[in-house]
Amino acid sequence: MNKSKTKLAGWILSGLLSAFLIFASASGKFTDWEGKEEMFSHLGWSIDTMVAIGILEVLIAILYLVPRIAFYGAIMLSAYLGGAVATHVRVGDPYFMPALLGIVAWVSLALRDPSVWNLALGKRNELSTTD
What we know:
This protein is mainly alpha-helical. The protein has helices at 3-30, 36-43, 47-65, 70-91, 96-112, 115-120. Helix 1 packs antiparallel against helix 5. The radius of gyration is 17 Å and the shape is elongated. Mean pLDDT is 92; it is low at 127-131.
């Protein structure tokens, strides 16, 4: 696959991931629906805390889309999703979805920016002047 198609695939995956986080996951923390209080209580979180977590989720998803700070956004997204995995493990719920989203976040970022592959594989950056 050539560079432009790889980059486009990375942007599409990144956009889909961010759209999912904002419009599916975070929006559920902001809207009213039947069973919301019971579900959040089951996870050990209050409604107010979940709203704050939803705001954080939206901010991280947006940061992840900004090219200059996408790497930091991916780190914050990994931390956020790690907390989601820990919460689901703690209550005995399936945790594969947040773990999978974390993998998708890094793969899509690496498709957008090939230097992420080099970093992940431990390859020396060509622009680095130190050993």
